[in-house]
Specification:
Largest sheet: 8 strands, parallel
CATH architecture of the largest domain: Alpha-Beta Barrel
Structural class: alpha/beta
Radius of gyration: 24 Å
Strand order of the largest sheet: 2-9-8-7-6-5-4-3
Number of helices: 12
Bound molecules: pyridoxal-5'-phosphate
């Protein structure tokens, strides 16, 4: 966990209470009978795969969703016994491990089905699979015209069990107009009915990410797969506004992540001098600059140029370009700043707060990318 001696210089604090509170919020939203399967892919959106997963499970989550086999393997190695659902593709050559680790996987091609069917028979095990249905995302998925044939093909393998039918919304969080999501949901319901007409009982139908779980109870079915909001972030401003306008309830999502570093040097730069690569910033007064040991390798986006950090609860503006391992900030108006003082890159310090959403606006991206791209090597500390 503590690699490269970084733990004293750059670290991420994760609030256990915040994670617990968000899981409680989702439990209240979906009720006790719906499987709550938070997405912990991509290092739990930057929050740390193993610890976050354990906190989620202790807080009442039922299953965990990961993207890749290596994530599922890490969870099993860490002693996690809960059901794990793998959302992403698994190479044909790795399918035996799916059975050995007792994973649920999503399927959408016949090659996976036949290989898994053969391996399951050889090992004398049952493989639990969830069919991904194409309803309008045009990512993974089996189209409506092929679904009956696909289901019958699966049923020809006696060691395969169709445990779930799933789909994923393409346009539910980026907009306040949910007509496309409604079309997808209708299509999903039609295809579910088609499959169930084949006299097969499907235990778990699921399609709800955070936005769907928050906004549309009719998407909950037997299981929900929220990601971003279990970490305390709204999927978008539009989702927040839609929720406030359309659902007659109050919830509070509590951001769990705080990203910190320490001042590595303070220096005084005369007026009219340049700071950093490309001479992109020129001082207009004698300036006190703090050097911070974090850069784009750590996930502090190089595209950012108009941002600030927090030191002693005050804003210190970024000066010059983000380097690979260093950024420079202006502490002229924070005279108390000194070597190794704590710096907040994302999170609260006194009355000031830098949210992941604020950071994402500086970086011209979304909150998801901001937290997911904080380098995995940086220690996560659970407080
Ligand atoms: C298939 C699938 N389900 C659920 C989620 C969770 O989405 P969100 O983080 O918006 O809740 C994702 C995230 O990308 C996903 O790919």
């Amino acid at each position: 966990m503590y690699l490269f001696g970084m733990e004293n210089l750059v670290w991420v604090e994760i609030s256990k209470n915040a994670l617990q509170s968000n899981i409680n919020t989702f439990r209240n939203l979906v009720g006790k009978d719906t499987i709550l399967c938070p997405c912990v892919k991509s290092n739990a959106y930057g929050h740390g795969l193993i610890e976050t997963s354990k906190i989620f499970l202790e807080s009442g989550a039922d299953w965990l969703a990961v993207n890749a086999l290596y994530e599922a393997r890490s969870l099993r190695s860490a002693g996690v016994l809960a059901p794990i659902y793998v959302l992403g593709y698994i190479a044909l050559s790795d399918l035996e491990e799916v059975l050995n680790l007792d994973l649920r996987i999503v399927v959408y091609n016949k090659e996976t089905v036949s290989r898994l069917g053969e391996i399951a028979e050889k090992l004398d095990k049952k493989a639990k699979i969830h069919i991904k249905i194409e309803t309008g995302n045009n990512r993974q998925g089996v189209v409506a015209e092929e679904i009956e044939d696909f289901v019958k093909y699966i049923l020809s393998f006696k060691n395969l069990e169709i445990e779930g039918l799933s789909t994923h919304f393409a346009n539910i969080e980026d907009t306040k107009d949910h007509s496309y999501a409604e079309i997808q949901l209708k299509k999903f319901n039609e295809i579910v009915a088609m499959v169930e007409n084949l006299e097969i009982k499907i235990p778990f139908k699921h399609c709800a990410n955070s936005a769907a779980t928050l906004l549309f109870p009719e998407t909950h079915f037997e299981m929900v797969r929220p990601g971003i909001s279990t970490y305390g972030m709204w999927p978008s401003d539009e989702t927040f506004l839609s929720f406030s306008n359309e659902r007659k309830m109050n919830i509070s999502l509590v951001p769990a992540l705080c990203w910190k570093t320490k001042i590595a040097q303070i220096k005084t730069v005369p007026s009219g001098e340049f700071i950093g690569y490309g001479c992109s910033y020129k001082t207009t007064r004698q300036t006190k600059i703090a050097i911070l040991p974090v850069g784009y390798y750590d996930g502090y986006d190089r595209g950012i140029n108009n941002a600030h950090v927090l030191i002693h609860g005050k804003r210190a503006a970024l000066r010059g370009r983000v380097c690979m391992n260093i950024i420079m900030v202006d502490v002229t108006d924070i005279p108390e700043a000194s070597l190794e003082d704590e710096v907040v890159l994302i999170g609260r310090d006194g009355d000031e707060n830098i949210s992941a959403e604020q950071f994402s606006k500086w970086a011209d991206t979304i909150n998801y990318e901001v937290t997911a791209r904080i380098n995995d090597r940086i220690p996560r500390i659970y407080v």
